[in-house]
């Protein structure tokens, strides 16, 4: 039986917890983490700024597509 994959979080004291199988892989840096470090904010993800910028651009495009323009009323 292969050894359990361990959390790849590195700091002063490395984490020795088992990596989660389904949700433990970060979609941005592709490293595997335990439940405590699986979020990009919690493991100091290298690609966190790119992730935030992409989310900002998606949100901006969505809000601009939903913008309503007040129709001009003709005054007689």
From TrEMBL:
SUPFAM superfamilies xref list: AN1-like Zinc finger (SSF118310)
Domain AN1-type, residue spans: 7-50
Keywords: Metal-binding, Zinc, Zinc-finger
Gene3D superfamilies found in the cross-reference section: AN1-like Zinc finger
Protein name: AN1-type domain-containing protein
Molecular function per GO: zinc ion binding
Organism annotation: Rhizopogon vinicolor AM-OR11-026
Signal peptide: none
InterPro entries hit by this protein: AN1-like_Znf, Znf_AN1
Record Pfam families: zf-AN1 (PF01428)
